Structures are given as structure tokens and as C-alpha cells.
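Lab notes, practical 5.
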Amino acid sequence: MTDISPYTGEFCDPARERLFQEGRLRESRGHAQILFALSAVLNTLFLMSDWRFAGTDHFWVAVPARIVVILWSLACLSVSHRMTSFRAVERICFAWQAVIAVGVAFLVSSRSDIAVFVLVMLPLVFYLVVPTSFRGNVGGGLACGIALLIGYLAPAPLSATVPGMILAMVMLHFGMWIAIARGNRLQRKEWKAGLAAREAQAALANSRDTLEHMFMAVPLPLLVTRYDGSIVRINRAALEAHAAGGPVSLTNVEQTYVDLPVRDDLFARLRQGEAIDNFECRLRRGDGAIRNALLSSRPIVIDDEACFMTSVVDITERKEIEQNLERLAMSDALTGLANRAHFMAAVTQATAAPTKRAQLAVLLIDLDEFKRVNDTAGHDAGDALLCAVAGRLRHALRPGDLVARMGGDEFAVLLTRLPDAESVQPILRRITEHLHAPLSYRGRPMECRVSIGVALFPDHGDDVTALVKHADIALYHAKNSGRGRATLFGPELLESWEREAAMLDRARHILAHERPCPWYQPKIALDSGAIVGFEALFRCPTADGKVIMPGEIASAFEHPELGPMITMMMIDRIIADCVRWRDTGVTVGPIAFNGSGADLNDDAFADRLLQRLADAGLPPSTVELEVTESVFLGRNAERVGRALNRLSDAGVSIALDDFGTGYASLSHLKQFPIDIIKIDQRFVRDLETDPDDAAIVRTVLNLAFSLGIRTVAEGVENSRQVDYLRAGGCHYGQGYHFSPAIPAAAVTRLLATTAQADLG
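Output from the prediction step:
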């Protein structure tokens, strides 16, 4: 028959239960004091938020109730030091629970947003946090739940969900009953196991013969010493290791330590009762040879005398191997820094050292636009820039920090001895200030800007592979976010990187094995309802009848290789469709397609597009190029401007897509040849219900009218939006209200149907 109750999880024997609880008195009292203090602090903070009820009837309920809760918590805290028994702790916790439950019951009568949360949270606190017995946890939690439910339901009118809420609360309390009983049962089993273990340990200590045989047979050097270092017992392995084959006795371990400060530190920690693991030191053998050793020590009692048992592991060979690896580590020939192999070994050693939980940081640093320096100023200027960066990094870092050149224009830094994660920020600022300072080579100014990715140990990885990978992901994000900045790794960056990698892999598969093609969504003149053109949207029908949408490979469109491949494939299909429509006498109007920054960064893009139109016998006005304002950012704005001007001069209309959603600047409308502004669907979708969206749409329409720029509203879904946009002077609209994107084969039918409707 078990001695633990299956219903409460407590000992059936009251005396044994009392012994268990008294053994945990100090812990229970500390938990109670923390609970009272936190209650006072948190309710003081909530008291400030209760002033939002000022001017309402509930104000005179909430504020007094909150004050009572605070004062009662402080009162309980003030008398908590007098609790010298578990029963005293339990009684004051009972009193605290009663007042808190009543006070909070008045607070939840407001039925505010947080009231339902409190209905669940406070009983859980009573169940799980209040350090009382089973009756205190379950009784307090149940009484609190009833009080809060009454307080919440008391004000009229009652909600139709009241029965469901009551049932949910009943289920919660039954569940917590089971959880409390289970937790009590596990705690007592653990306590019983601890008692049994201590009894077994005592029995083993009394078996001196067995212990002596075991002690002497262990092949690892073991020593039992007093607090003053004198030897009580030493096993055969320790004697042989010290004597090294000669008749040398060892009476006191203090004489074996080579480094006296290390010895004093070890003995001070041992005298404080600290358990020592993996303590590295140098020891002198009986023959005078110095060996590196790793010590582990535990306090034991021998014949009622406090002693220490210490094990000794000789790590001399391991230390020699480590030193050889350091000597073999090569430096970078150009900059004199450590090379990649040296850096990786240093990170490996730092993360595997005995002080493994120390805070470290790995920084990967990449020079922005380094290729442009090589291309415009020559490789000698590029080499000079790399050497200058190496020197500035040395100057910016602390003594002991490691800086390495990983290859090409990428550097790496290992920061050690960081007290916390925040301490890396001043170092990053110092590195950025040093590296971004003006630089010249042979009288010619050179711009030196860097992007930095940071990963922390152990927060972002437990080994060199994970740390370097995560720092590289952070660096990738820094470069994609505008460059010239430092980015700290986070789980969201890994998710984004993995998501982008999956998109790129899928895009490569599509280009190699599928048949992507443009689908066409019509643009409608809002004044006449006529189709005035189409926008070509990426679609990829698959053999199983599904259609791959652009969002599934979004990252590929801005990829420097995949993006232009997709764009030119779309252009070829658009031109082929336009030729077919022209040959059959179908007039479709301009076909808009999306161009990315990766497309416009290619100086040959504009000429290539115009040449393909000319080869097909189509005028440049056949197509319309849509770009977002992100293509105007960065150092390539001049190159983008040349491409847009080249296309505009030839007769290709330029549309500014997603206007106002990201990097909108009115200077772009003046600086670049913009013919059309596209109002993003996020503003159009809620313009009937959201005054802010409606104001933005009106502002864009007025701005476009003043500048003589045509406007297209995206995402039009109902006739009310059409009426609003038409009244505001919007020229064109597109969206599901008119038609979704359709395959090229359906365009002719759509145009014919529209023409018949117009004639009818």
C-alpha cells in the first residue's frame, strides 16, 4: 500500500508530511516573500493603468480595490520574517489569498480586455505559486476562481457565453487539481529517493574495507587531503604519478603546485565548500618535471574530519598538441592577420574551453562594394584598402581579441571576455567609426563601408559551425537591409534565411523543369469601363493542376542571377503573346511587367529589351515597365536612372508600383521619368472604412493630378471602391472586381466578351 495519497499527492502519515514541509520551510518562506513583493509591485503598476477608468463608476471600485491589494501584500511581506514554521507560512498565505481574491473580484467586474485573462491567471497563481499544502493550493485556487467568476458576472447584462465560461473554469480547476496532486506526488517521491540515497551513502561510508579497496584500485590518481593540504590517503596511481618511478614520498600537496596564486585560489574555493570541476593547473612531480593537470575535488568526511578527495588528470600531452596547433596556424600573407583556419581553430578552442559558458561573440565583416574599388581603381588600390581595414580593425579592438581575414574582402573577429551580450554594442560602434572614416590611396579618396553580422556564444550556437553560420546569416541580412550596418543574429533571421533559400531552390527547379508563363490582369478605364491594357503576372501551372504563385518564390525576383532570368523569360513570353494577338487583329493595349533592382543594375537591360521588341516588330509602347522605389536606393541609383531614361526616351512607359508603402520620396517623381503611379492595394482595400487609407488615396490622386501623372488603383474589389476612385480622379483600376489574372488564351475571349457587352 502506498504511503502517498492518490488524491492529494501528500503523505498519508501527518507526521511524515509535517517533516517534509518543515524541511522546505526556508524555501517556502522565501517563495512567499517573493510572491508578496511581486504582488505589491505589479499591482502598483496596474494602479497607474486603473486611472483610465477615471470618470466612470468603476473607477471608485477599481482604485480602492487595487489599493487594498497593495497594502495587504505589503502587510503580509512585513510580517513574513516572523514565519518560523510551515504552518505559519500557510496561515499568512491563506490570509493573503483571501484578500487578494476578493480585491481582484471587484477589479474584474469592469469586464475589461484583461479581465478574462485575470480570471484564468490568478487561480493558476494560487494553484502553482503559493507555497502551501494541497488544501491551500486547491482550496485557494477554487475559492479564488469562484470569487473572480462572481465578480466578473455580477454586473448586468449576462453574456450568452456564461455557461461555457463556467464549464471552462470547472475544467481548468479539475485540471489544476490533477496537476497539483501529480506535482506533490513527484516532490515527495524525490524527497524519499533523496533520503534513501543519503542512507545508502552513509552505509557506504561506514564500509571502510570496501571503500579502501575501491580507492586503491582506481587507475586515476586520487588524493584525500585535509584543509591544510596534508595528505590523509593517496592511492597507488597518484603515488606512481608523483614519484615517476623513484622512491619519492608526498606528505603535503601544497609543495606540488608551480603557480602559487593558482594554488591559493584553489584552496580558497575548497575552504568555502565549493565543489571543484576541471580546475587546470601546473604540478611538479617528485623528479622535478612540471606537468599540466586537471583537478576535480569534492568535500568528504573521514573519521569525522572534514577533508577533500581530489582526482588528477594529466593533460600535458593535450596542452602540447594545442600549442603545436597554434604554432602551425598560418597568417594571411597580405594583411598579416590570422587566416581562416586559425580563426576557426580559435573559435573552436574558445567554445570548448573549461569556461565554456563565458560570453563570446563572432563577427563577420564584409566590405561593401569592394569589387567596384578593384574595377575602378585597380587591384593595387583594393589591396591597400584591405590592409587599411586590417590596421583599423586592430586599432579598434581590445587586446586579446582576435581578428582574421577569412578570404577576399571578408574579415572575422572573435570577441572574448564579454560580461554580457550588451557589451558587444560599444565595440561594434568603435569598429564602425574606425572603418567608415575617410580613406585615400595615392591621393584618390576611397569609400570604406562595411556590413557586420554578429553571433553570440552560447546564445546563438554551441560550436564554431553554428556560430559562423549564424553570423553569416546576420551579415547577409545586414547587406540586404541597406549595407553599412551591423546586425545581431536572431531566430527570425534564420527562419527568413531558410525561407529565402527554399524559395530560391524552388525557383531554380521551376526554371529547369516547369513552364512558367505570364497571366494577364486587365486594367480598366474607370470613366468608361473599357479595357486599356493588362499587367503580366508570373504564374507557373504544374502537371497536377496547381499554379505556383509569385509569393512562393518571392526572393528569386531580387536575386542577382535568378531575377534577371525570370524577367527575360517573362519578356520573351509577353512578346510572343503580343505578336500572336497582333497577327490575329486583337488590340490589347500596353502590357505592364515588373522589373527588379537586379534587372536595372544591368547596363544592358534597356537595350536588350528594346532590341527584342524591335526583332518582333513591336513598338516600345507595347510594354510598360513597373518598378518599386527600392530600385532607386543605394549606390546604383545613377545606373537605374540611365536605364529608365533610356526606356522612357524610346517610348516605354514607366510605372511606380506600390507607391507609398516603403521608401516613398517625392524627389523620385521629379528625378526619374515616372508616367504612372500605382496605388497599392493595401490603401484601396479599406478606403471605405479607414479614413486614413482614404486620405492617403486622395492625397496620391491630387499629387498625381498636379504632376500630370496617370494613376492606377490596385486591388479594386467592389463597385463602391470604383465610385470613390472615379470621383477622386483615378484613371485606371485593376483587381478582382474586374477580373483576376487569366492565361494568355483567355485574353482574346475576355476582350470579345467586353466588346459585345459594350455594343449591347
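Observations recorded by the TA: The two ends are 92 Å apart (CA to CA). Residues 123 and 145 are 6 Å apart (CA to CA).
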